[in-house]
Amino acid sequence: MTLRCLEPSGNGAEGTRSQWGTAGSAEEPSPESARLAKALRELSQTGCWKTWLHVRTRLAKRAQWFLAHGKYSGEMEARDKQVLRSLRLDLCAEVLVDGLVLQYLYQEGILTENHVQEIKAQATGLRKTMLLLDILPSRGPKAFDAFLDSLQEFPWVREKLEKAREEAITELPADDGIAGIPPHVLNSSPSDRQISQLAQRLGPEWEPVVLSLGLSQTDIYRCKANHPHNVQSQMVEAFIRWRQRFGKEATFQSLHRGLRTAEADPSVLQHMLE
Fold first, then answer.
1. 6: closest CA among 46, 45, 33?
2. What are φ and ψ of residue 7, in 5° steps?
3. CA-wise closest residue to 230 among 253, 261, 206
4. Contact criterion met (CB below 8 Å) for 213 and 262
5. 83: number of CA atoms within 13 Å, CB side?
6. Considering all CA atoms of the chain, what is the largest pairwise distance in Å, rounded to the nearest integer?
7. pLDDT of residue 272
8. Rounded Cα gap, residues 191 and 274, in angstroms
9. Distance, CA of 99 to CA of 71 (rounded, Å)
10. CB 209 within 8 A of CB 266
11. Mean pLDDT across the stretch 263-269?
């Protein structure tokens, strides 16, 4: 018995039946063949065959996407991006792409085939390494660790990166604006005086800060309408609205998160508590 085609023809049952068995043979199809032929007839009659073709097309497109973009996508952690940026000149001087770094990153799905080809097409080792360092931050949170693992031929480079990463972790709390603040203070709400001190420290970023805290554009508009010529009063009213609306949840801790979300300087919290 020869399997010629799995797609149903437009001739209904006769067309489907003719696809099984050898040409011109009067042999009866096996039970398995008969069941498959029946299933194909039902697919063609109900329109499910078109649905299957649609699904198969979508799967093929998804496979093409993975080939183009690789296993990982997204952003690297800010700390790791800072480490790569701070050591960029040192890393470029090592010409890392001349070893097995690219092949390892490709094997782990960090780099795609297109990435590898684009890097190799650069004229010099310096430009190749610079392009690699440009690509890595957009290859997801696992890209930095994979990059460290790829440096088997450059143990001194790996050691330098690991040391810089540890120092970045150690220094982070000092710039966080929250170190040294007792937990009971972090879980309390700011007073009117402290809100006024906050308003003195913030600039135009106050609007994204209060939006990240849960206020709306309408709230901001009302604050501006109530104090059209005094930006500091607009800020004070906005933060008092936040405190009144969220009650016990309007804490220094949540304010700290709002400052970081809006990329404002979180060290203003320290000034509020002076």
1. 33
2. -90, 135
3. 206
4. no
5. 27
6. 98
7. 85
8. 13
9. 22
10. no
11. 81
Span between the terminal Cα atoms of the chain, in Å? 89
Q: How far is Cα 262 from Cα 212, in angstroms, rounded to an integer?
A: 7
Q: How far apart are CA 198 and CA 239, in angstroms?
A: 9
Which among 123, 135, 75, 137 is positioned nearest to 95, based on CA atoms? Answer: 123
* 148 contacts 161 by C-beta, under 8 angstroms: yes
- For residue 80 the two structure tokens come to 């790791």
* Per-residue pLDDT reduced to its tens digit, 76-127: 677 788 888 888 888 888 877 777 899 999 999 999 999 999 999 988 888 8
Q: Which tokens hold the place of 50?
A: 């078109």
| 3-state SS record for the chain | CCECCCCCCCCHHHHHHCCECCCCCCCCCCHHHHHHHHHHHHHHHHCHHHHHHHHHHHHHHHHHHHHHHCCCCECCCHHHHHHHHHCHHHHHHCCHHHCCHHHHHHHCCCCCHHHHHHHHCCCCHHHHHHHHHHHHHHECCCHHHHHHHHCCCCHHHHHHHHHHHHHHHHHHHHHCCCCCCCHHHHCCCCCHHHHHHHHHHCCCCHHHHHHHCCCCHHHHHHHHHHCCCCHHHHHHHHHHHHHHHHHHHCCHHHHHHHHHHCCCCCCHHHHHCC
